[in-house]
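Look over both lines before class:
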Amino acid sequence: MKKVLTIAGSDSTGGAGIEADLKTFQEYGVFGFASIASIVTMDPSMGWTHEVTAMDTSLVEKQLISAFTGEPMDAVKTGMLGNEANIAQAAKMIQQQQVKQVVIDPVIACKGTAHILQPKSVDALIEYLLPLADVVTPNLIEAGILSGMGDLKDLVAMKGAAKRIYHLGAKCVVVKGGHRLPGAQAIDLVYDGHSFTTLESRRIDTDFNHGAGCTFSAAITAGLAKGLPLLESIRLAKDFVVAAIRQGVLINPYVGHVWHGAYNHAEERMIPHE
């Protein structure tokens, strides 16, 4: 069985972060490992404001040592790492372990805004992680920040940002247009340094999309671990997350999550026979 590690933040509501990654790995039939680099909490008394608490870097290192003991990982993904020290630690371990498939989800901004959670983390991501990335999966806001191009409003701008991020060291860049681009289609752009590929799906009119980005990058990671070609891994991941969004779940008055089991109809499994 293929082994896949996520180094990311924990979302106690279960929609994003490590929780989303492990659910996705399970649906893909790979064995998931996890190292928690940060904890994200939301305050309902303050309108569901987010707070990110970084784990101590020495504890992140201990988790990584535990996870990497044994046979090599087939793939690794990173998510919200909390601070620059944790980013550097994750990069150090990925290099030491000579991981062959590395997916970087550059979680650096609050969802739906250009507010950077930790400005120093942007520099650390660019310095330490992007040169290790087989795939990096920024959304429009993150791509605008990493590329220095700011607000990306159309496909032309997405292509410009993808080229700039590629030249920062990533082997393949997937800019997620998601629901932020105008029009009836949700468009993602793939750039491998040679050509562009656009992936389109019908836009889904829903607010139940928390965790979509984490789920997408986790699905790419699992696909690569199982030996799928890069573009096929990305296409399947898009299909997987579209199904997850289409069957999103209302969690509380503030948020709705994607349903990670939608693609495989997981809700139909393990039903007691009468």
Notes: The chain has a mean pLDDT of 94. The chain is about 35% helix and 25% strand. The domain at 3-259 is CATH 3.40.1190.20 (UDP-N-acetylmuramoyl-L-alanine:D-glutamate ligase). The two ends are 33 Å apart (CA to CA).
